[in-house]
TrEMBL record:
<dbReference type="GO" id="GO:0046349">
    <property type="term" value="P:amino sugar biosynthetic process"/>
</dbReference>
<keyword id="KW-0808">Transferase</keyword>
<dbReference type="GO" id="GO:0005975">
    <property type="term" value="P:carbohydrate metabolic process"/>
</dbReference>
<protein>
    <recommendedName>
        <fullName>Glutamine--fructose-6-phosphate aminotransferase [isomerizing]</fullName>
        <ecNumber>2.6.1.16</ecNumber>
    </recommendedName>
</protein>
<dbReference type="GO" id="GO:0006487">
    <property type="term" value="P:protein N-linked glycosylation"/>
</dbReference>
<keyword id="KW-0032">Aminotransferase</keyword>
<feature type="active site" description="For Fru-6P isomerization activity">
    <location>
        <position position="361"/>
    </location>
</feature>
<feature type="domain" description="SIS">
    <location>
        <begin position="215"/>
        <end position="356"/>
    </location>
</feature>
<dbReference type="GO" id="GO:0004360">
    <property type="term" value="F:glutamine-fructose-6-phosphate transaminase (isomerizing) activity"/>
</dbReference>
<comment type="subunit">
    <text>Homodimer.</text>
</comment>
<dbReference type="GO" id="GO:0005829">
    <property type="term" value="C:cytosol"/>
</dbReference>
<dbReference type="GO" id="GO:0006047">
    <property type="term" value="P:UDP-N-acetylglucosamine metabolic process"/>
</dbReference>
<keyword id="KW-0315">Glutamine amidotransferase</keyword>
<feature type="domain" description="SIS">
    <location>
        <begin position="43"/>
        <end position="182"/>
    </location>
</feature>
<keyword id="KW-0963">Cytoplasm</keyword>
<dbReference type="GO" id="GO:0006002">
    <property type="term" value="P:fructose 6-phosphate metabolic process"/>
</dbReference>
<keyword id="KW-0677">Repeat</keyword>
C-alpha cells in the first residue's frame, strides 16, 4: 500500500503531481479561461461583497491559509485575516454577517477548527470549508466548500494536503478576481495556464531528490535550523520549519527574512544551517542581501533557487533548484524540496517518519 516507497510520507510527497491534477480536474479549463468550483458558484456575491475574509485553521492548514492571504489580497483585493482556530475561538472575535470565514482542514475533524466554525456561524458569518476528507465533520458543518481531492493522507506530517489546499485556494482567488474585476484578462489567462503547469513543475522539483538527500546527510546532526522567506514564501519558511520539527525532532524556526535583523541574527554562527527561499521574485535582491548578512556571520546557506539562477548559487553553500512560475504560485514548488529535506534528515536519524512521537493525524482534543 506504500506503492513501493519506504514510507507513506515519501509516497505522498511523490504523489503531488498527480493529486494536484486531481484537485483541478474538471474545475480548471485553462484554454477556455474557466475556473469553476461547484461549492463556490452560488456564493460568489457573498465573497466579493464581504467586508473581510477570515481564514481559520491549525498547523500546516494554517500555513496554507497564510499563502491564501497573499493570493486573495493580491488578486481579489479583499482584506484577509488568518487566525489560529484555537486563538480565534477563545478571544471574543468581532464577526458579523458581512464576514466570510474559510476553514481549512485536511482531516475535517480538528476540534479547534470545528469550534471556530460553530462560533462564526453563531455570529451569522458565512462559512466555507476546504477539506480533504469527504463527509468529515467540518465538511458537514460548513455552509459550502470545496474538497481538495488529495486522496487519503496517512503520514502524520501533512504534505500533499498542503499543496492541494493551496491549489484550491488559488482557484478560488482566480474565480473571485474574475467576478470582481480585479484581475486583467491576460493575467487571468496566464495564471490559469501556469496553474495547469504546476504538476509538471512539481515533477521536475522532485527530480532533485538525490541531491537533497546528499544535502540532508551534511546537516542531519545540526541542533537548530532557521528557515527564511519573504512574501508568498514566508509561509513556506514556516511550513518547512514545522515539517523538520515534527518528524526529525530538530529545533527549527521559520521567519520572514527581513525580521532576521530584529533578533534571530544573533543565533547565526558556523553551526547554524539557514534554509533560504531565494527564488526569482520581486524580493530577490532583498533576499540576496539577507544571504550576505548570514554569510558574513559564517552561517551555512541552503538556498531554494529558481532554475538557472547564478547569483545565489555563488553565495550559497548548497542549492535546491525549482522551476519558474509566477510568484503567487511559487509556494506550490518551493515547498517540495523542503518536504524532501525534512524527510531525508528524519530517516537518517532513524525517526518514525510516518508516526512521529506525540502527534496524531487528527487532533480531536482541544
Ligand atoms: C503538520 C500537521 C498538523 C496539521 C494540523 C491541522 O504536518 O499535520 O499541523 O496540519 O493538526 O490538521 P487538519 O488540517 O486536519 O485540520
Amino acid at each position: 500500500e506504500k506503492g513501493g516507497y519506504e514510507h507513506f510520507m515519501l509516497k505522498e510527497i511523490f504523489e503531488q503531481p498527480s493529486v494536484i491534477k486531481d484537485t483541478y480536474r474538471g474545475r480548471l479549463l485553462a484554454d477556455q479561461g474557466i475556473v469553476r468550483l461547484g461549492g463556490l458558484e452560488d456564493h460568489i456575491e457573498k465573497f466579493i461583497n464581504a467586508d473581510r475574509i477570515i481564514i481559520v485553521a491549525c498547523g500546516t492548514s494554517w500555513h496554507a491559509g497564510l499563502v491564501a492571504e497573499y493570493i486573495f489580497e493580491d488578486l481579489v483585493r479583499i482584506p484577509v485575516e488568518v487566525e489560529y482556530a484555537s486563538e480565534f475561538r477563545y478571544r471574543n472575535p468581532i464577526i458579523s454577517e458581512k464576514d466570510v470565514v474559510i476553514a481549512i482542514s485536511q482531516s475535517g475533524e480538528t476540534a479547534d477548527t470545528l469550534a471556530a466554525i460553530k462560533l462564526a456561524k453563531s455570529k451569522g458569518a458565512f462559512v466555507y470549508g476546504v477539506c480533504n476528507v469527504v463527509g468529515s465533520t467540518i465538511s458537514r458543518e460548513t455552509h459550502s466548500g470545496t474538497y481538495t481531492h488529495a486522496g487519503p493522507e496517512i503520514g502524520v506530517a501533512s504534505t500533499k494536503a498542503f499543496t492541494t489546499q493551496i491549489t484550491v485556494l488559488a482557484m478560488m482567488a482566480l474565480r473571485l478576481a474574475k467576478a470582481k474585476g480585479t484581475i486583467s484578462k491576460p493575467d487571468y489567462m496566464l495564471y490559469l495556464r501556469e496553474l495547469e503547469l504546476i504538476p509538471t513543475h512539481v515533477e521536475e522539483a522532485l527530480k532533485t531528490d538525490s541531491k537533497i538527500e546528499e544535502i540532508s546527510a551534511v546537516f542531519k546532526d545540526a541542533r537548530n535550523f532557521l528557515y527564511l522567506g519573504r512574501g508568498y514564501n514566508f509561509p513556506v519558511a514556516l511550513e518547512g520549519a514545522l515539517k523538520l520539527k515534527e518528524i526529525s525532532y530538530i529545533h527549527a524556526e521559520g521567519y520572514p527574512a527581513a525580521e532576521m535583523k530584529h533578533g534571530p541574527i544573533a543565533l547565526i554562527d558556523e553551526q547554524m544551517p539557514v534554509v533560504v527561499i531565494a527564488i526569482k521574485s520581486d524580493h530577490y535582491d532583498k533576499v540576496v542581501s539577507n544571504i550576505q548578512e548570514i554569510k558574513a556571520r559564517k552561517g551555512k546557506i541552503i538556498a531554494v533557487v529558481s532554475k538557472g539562477d547564478t547569483v545565489v548559487r555563488e553565495m550559497a553553500d548548497y542549492v535546491m533548484e525549482v522551476p519558474h512560475t509566477p510568484e503567487a504560485l511559487t509556494p506550490l514548488v518551493t515547498t517540495i524540496p523542503l518536504q524532501l529535506l525534512s524527510y531525508h534528515i528524519a530517516v537518517m536519524l532513524g525517526r518514525n517518519v510516518d508516526q512521529p512521537r506525540n502527534l496524531a493525524k487528527s487532533v480531536t482534543v482541544e
